[in-house]
Automatic annotation (TrEMBL):
The lineage of its organism: Bacteria, Pseudomonadati, Pseudomonadota, Gammaproteobacteria, Aeromonadales. Keywords: Acyltransferase, Amino-acid biosynthesis, Cysteine biosynthesis, Repeat, Transferase. Belongs to the transferase hexapeptide repeat family. Its EC number is 2.3.1.30. It is an enzyme of class 2 (transferase). InterPro entries: Hexapep, Hexapep_transf_CS, LbH_SAT, Ser_AcTrfase_N, Ser_AcTrfase_N_sf, Ser_O-AcTrfase, Serine_acetyltransferase, Trimer_LpxA-like_sf. It comes from Candidatus Anaerobiospirillum merdipullorum. One of its GO terms (biological process) is cysteine biosynthetic process from serine. It comes from the Bacteria. GO terms for molecular function: serine O-acetyltransferase activity. Pathway: Amino-acid biosynthesis; L-cysteine biosynthesis; L-cysteine from L-serine: step 1/2. Residues 9-112 form the Serine acetyltransferase N-terminal domain. This is Serine acetyltransferase. The keyword Repeat applies.
Length: 280
């Protein structure tokens, strides 16, 4: 039986596609290939991702079969639906579902990673790693297929996002461009951050090591986080330190970049925009 969430989302996408076709006939071929000629959300997304990733080594048809196998799984298609809803709810530039579905590489990279993760967890490690490489080349987003990522995720702009092998990202997290939840470079085993639900990580932030980022935390742009962050806490700077508390329980949903309620008298902003301790 078709997933109810996917069915509802797909109906909205199809209605939007028909309206776009009426306005812009030159996009007819794209709209039919990715949406209007497709059976459902899984079919449309599998076609789209396969077309984006196909190359001389791995063609469109085998890629499509990998993608459709993943997107037919209820937990994966539910995560896909939550991801697309998240983008439309949090990104003022994405007023319609067709925008992330057709055009945004952050959404495409994330949903392509879900295929690589699906394959990795089913023992197809080599092809999953190959997909990781292709996704990195095509979208400039590098996520290890063994990482664990929840649903309702938004990669805003996405370029330069790197997520390590043992990283965990909870539900309803927003990650902006050039963010790295990575390792310190000198550890083995479980060596990457564990990011709780509702967290917002600002552009350019680096979160390094096997540290816990508590739910509802906010990490300021350009920060370097080397130590655990308590839930519902705002951190900023190099190295990051506590500067306040978010107004919202889940900062990821509000996408407010201000360091709200922050006690900033001991901090200064450098010419590059990085926030640092005054006495550093």
């Amino acid at each position: 039986m078709e997933n109810a969430q996917a069915k509802a989302l797909w109906a909205e996408i199809c209605a939007e596609a028909q309206a776009i076709q009426a306005r812009e006939p030159m996009l007819t071929e794209l709209l039919h290939h990715a949406i209007l000629d497709c059976r459902d959300l899984a079919d449309g997304l599998a076609r789209l991702i396969a077309a984006r990733l196909a190359n001389a080594v791995l063609g469109r048809e085998p890629l499509y079969q990998m993608c459709i196998s993943a997107y037919r799984e209820d937990d994966i298609i539910e995560a896909v639906c939550a991801d697309f809803r998240a983008v439309c709810a949090r990104d003022p530039a994405s007023a319609q579902l067709t925008i992330p579905f057709l055009y945004l590489k952050g959404a495409h990279a994330l949903e392509a990673w879900r295929v690589a993760h699906f394959l990795y967890t089913r023992g197809r490690v080599d092809v999953a790693r190959y997909l990781q490489s292709v996704i990195s080349d095509v979208f400039a987003v590098d996520i290890h297929p063994a990482a664990r990522i929840g649903k309702g995720i938004m990669f805003d702009h996405a370029t330069g996002i790197v997520i390590g092998e043992t990283a965990v990202v909870g539900d309803n997290v927003s990650i902006l461009q050039d963010v790295t939840p990575g390792g310190t470079g000198k550890e083995n085993g479980d060596r990457h951050p564990k990011v709780g639900s509702g967290v917002m990580i600002g552009a350019g932030a680096k979160v390094l090591g096997n540290i816990q980022i508590g739910e509802g935390a906010k990490i300021g742009a350009g920060s370097v986080v080397l130590h655990a962050v308590m839930p519902h806490t705002t951190v900023a700077g190099i190295p990051a330190r506590v500067v306040g508390k978010p107004r919202e329980a889940e900062p990821a949903l509000a996408m407010d970049q201000e360091l709200d309620n922050a006690n900033l008298q001991d901090w200064c902003t450098l010419g590059c925009g990085i926030i640092c301790k005054k006495d550093v």
